[in-house]
């Protein structure tokens, strides 16, 4: 059993990233982009990184000049995309591109990326091997903030589109590219872009965004995997308040506000949400089982048969448990200011990450049910709420296109696995206007790279870049030519 536990524990690691069966790799669309060597792509990405397009909460104009300069650079670097795809500036900085398809009743495909990056934490600049906005190309990497999250994705997707247009690409289906400008601070840009589709009475066939990647050495198997994000968790924070009589602490009531709050927190934590092995975890287990050994391989390969055993093991690991259900994390507690005075009120803040089987409303009802017997306790939502979008299937034509392209551009032998992200992406804003949402690019990360996202020494492997361009060409090309699936009803 230790083997199973150790083997499965590694599964959780990829769920931290913005992260069925493999499909037949499709033939690449046209020749690979001529003249775009690794070095050319690396230098191009380096240039993109040098624009300090930092988004700041509540201060949308903080880096306005950098964003404007970055837009100019995009126009110079991708002239055909700008000439043929009617760029529009949306919500003050996002870019929405449209290449009209020849068949108007085919639902469009949307490729999303964001232009903004998170700031470098003050005082940590020295911890970077290269300055954070250097865009240096050295030691086999392009270095800098945004290399992984997500100018690498953005520049390679735009390059893929540009090269398709150079070849005279005329899709049957409309292709949109949406480049958000404030993903890291909420995604008003993505909301406005999704509203474009809604206003036009259109639904996207699928949206492709960040949040999944190829991983070179996946801990559960020791080999590579390609983890495609088919879902992501939602976000809800609640304030739990307990009220009781105040007064002098020498004659306390049987229960004080602090005592009552403690019981309320315990009641909530002791009433967990449902945790189960279902899509996408069952598909992921099956897909990686071939690369595992012994009993772990047998159990992971048959999650139906070994459900209770697997569940027990996966529940023992914090990251895999988080992937199976809504999590409850008390993060703030307050009450009382003086040692001999009873506070009339004590409060706690609890952060939840909502599994797609729950909504903010059902989760709130669940929490209130947990404290229903405690008089004087209330539970109210605070701050922003993000509903978890529905999980997209790991079957069907859209999945086949993404999984096929992922398989074709992942390290040799990597199984393509569906994954539920614990992080949020801009694509969630398209939940109401898209049939499916997938999150993937073959960034070729190793486990150490996970900490570089929003951390120090963010960098991307130069040798991954041509495969990324090729991946986007394949996805856009295949989706653009697909005329059966994704048709307006
Ligand atoms: Zn991102």
Structural notes for this entry:
With 489 residues, the protein is of the alpha+beta class. The strands form four sheets. Strands 1, 2, 3, 6, 7, 8, 15 and 16 form an eight-stranded mixed beta sheet that branches. The longest helix has 20 residues, at 147-166. It contains 15 helices and 17 strands. The N and C termini lie far apart (50 Å). Strand 1 (88-90) and strand 2 (94-99) form a beta hairpin. Zinc ion (ZN) is lined by residues 18, 114, 149-150, 183, 210.
Write the layout of secondary structure elements.
Blueprint: H1 2-9, H2 11-15, H3 38-49, H4 64-77, H5 79-84, E1 88-90, E2 94-99, E3 109-114, E4 137-138, E5 141-143, H6 147-166, E6 175-180, H7 188-199, E7 204-215, E8 225-232, E9 234-243, E10 247-248, H8 257-269, H9 281-289, H10 294-301, H11 307-315, H12 318-324, E11 327-335, E12 341-342, E13 345-354, H13 360-370, E14 377-386, H14 397-408, E15 416-421, E16 434-445, E17 459-461, H15 465-481
Parallel strand pairs: 3-6, 3-7, 7-16, 8-15
Antiparallel strand pairs: 1-2, 2-6, 4-5, 5-17, 7-8, 9-13, 9-14, 10-12, 11-13
Helix pairs in contact: 1-10, 3-6, 6-15, 9-10, 14-15
Zinc ion is lined by residues 18, 114, 149-150, 183, 210.
């Amino acid at each position: 059993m230790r083997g199973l536990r150790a083997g499965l524990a590694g599964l959780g690691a990829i769920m931290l990233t913005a992260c069925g069966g493999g499909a037949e790799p499709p033939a690449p669309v046209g020749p690979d982009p001529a003249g775009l060597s690794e070095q050319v792509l690396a230098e191009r990405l380096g240039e993109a990184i040098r624009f300090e397009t930092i988004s700041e909460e509540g201060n949308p104009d903080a880096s306005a000049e950098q964003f404007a300069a970055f837009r100019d650079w995009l126009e110079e670097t991708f002239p055909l995309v700008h000439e043929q795809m009617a760029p529009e500036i949306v919500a003050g900085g996002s870019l929405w591109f449209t290449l009209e398809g020849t068949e108007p009743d085919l639902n469009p495909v949307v490729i999303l990326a964001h232009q903004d990056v998170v700031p470098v934490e003050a005082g940590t600049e020295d911890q970077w091997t290269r300055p954070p906005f250097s865009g240096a190309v050295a030691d086999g990497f392009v270095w800098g903030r945004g290399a992984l999250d997500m100018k690498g994705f953005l520049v390679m997707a735009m390059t893929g589109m540009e090269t398709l247009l150079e070849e005279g690409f005329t899709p049957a289906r409309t292709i949109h590219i949406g480049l958000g400008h404030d993903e890291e601070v909420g995604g008003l840009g993505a909301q406005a872009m999704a509203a474009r589709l809604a206003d036009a009475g259109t639904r996207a066939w699928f949206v492709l965004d960040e949040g999944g990647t190829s991983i070179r050495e996946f801990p559960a198997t020791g080999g590579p995997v390609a983890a495609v994000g088919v879902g992501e968790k939602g976000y809800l924070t609640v304030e739990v308040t307990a009220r009781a009589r105040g007064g002098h602490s020498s004659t306390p009531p049987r229960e004080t506000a602090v005592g009552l709050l403690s019981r309320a927190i315990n009641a909530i934590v002791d009433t967990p949400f449902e945790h189960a092995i279902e899509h996408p975890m069952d598909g992921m287990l099956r897909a990686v089982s071939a690369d595992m050994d012994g009993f772990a391989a047998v159990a992971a390969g048959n999650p139906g048969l070994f459900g209770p055993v697997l569940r027990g093991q996966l529940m023992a690991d914090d990251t895999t448990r988080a992937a199976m259900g809504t999590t409850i994390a008390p993060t703030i507690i307050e009450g009382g200011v003086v040692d001999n005075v009873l506070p009339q009120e004590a409060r706690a803040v609890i952060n939840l990450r909502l599994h797609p089987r729950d909504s903010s409303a059902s989760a709130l009802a669940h929490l209130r049910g947990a404290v229903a017997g405690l008089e004087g306790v209330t539970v109210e939502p605070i701050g922003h709420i993000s509903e978890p979008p529905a999980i997209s299937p790991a079957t069907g034509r859209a999945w086949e296109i993404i999984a096929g392209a992922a398989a074709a551009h992942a390290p040799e032998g990597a199984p393509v696995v569906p994954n539920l992200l614990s992080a949020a992406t801009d694509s969630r804003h398209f939940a109401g206007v898209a049939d499916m949402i997938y999150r993937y690019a073959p960034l070729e990360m190793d486990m150490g790279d996970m900490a570089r996202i929003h951390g120090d020494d963010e960098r991307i492997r130069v040798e991954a870049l041509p495969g990324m361009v090729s991946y986007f060409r394949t996805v856009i090309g295949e989706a653009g030519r697909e005329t059966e699936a994704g048709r307006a009803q």
